[in-house]
Amino acid sequence: MYPHADAPPGGPPDDADATIRQLYSGHAKALHGYVIRFCPDSANADDIVQETFIRAWRHLPKLTADSRPVRPWLFRVARNLLIDADRAARSRPAGAQAQPADDARDDSALDQVLDRQLVSTAVRQLSPGHRTVLVATFYHGNTPATVARELGIPRGTARSRLHYALHELRQQLQEMTRPRAS
Q: Residue 88, Cβ neighbours under 10 Å: how many?
């Protein structure tokens, strides 16, 4: 086990805990203010500051060996970590932004595509007369009277074709979506 619960192997002895806490309380706010200007978000800035203090803790005997100020060393380490993070980000290929887990479960776009495919297949199976009246009415927004006038057929014929087209379409969609017995 480590001498200190959070200490990695090769870290400073236990009396360093108070020293690193003192360094943190004296420099963390200023260091975070410096780092946040170069980070895309607060979480990345927090990570850089944390890593800076981990490195300070590992090098504590050297940092406290003389009377030189520690703050310039902390800022230099943070600057180097920022440079490393920037280089790593630029070396990775640009990819899609990560989406929250809730969005990953949202299948509405997929459902819409599948629904359109089912409807399209069912419409193609209608007779040409029924399909023409249905498409002109629902996809083009015409009334059955306008469709009748455009096709040169009686209004009653346009209405009955629309009625039978919808009936047939409904049956086909029910068949397509009915679970099949294995």
A: 9
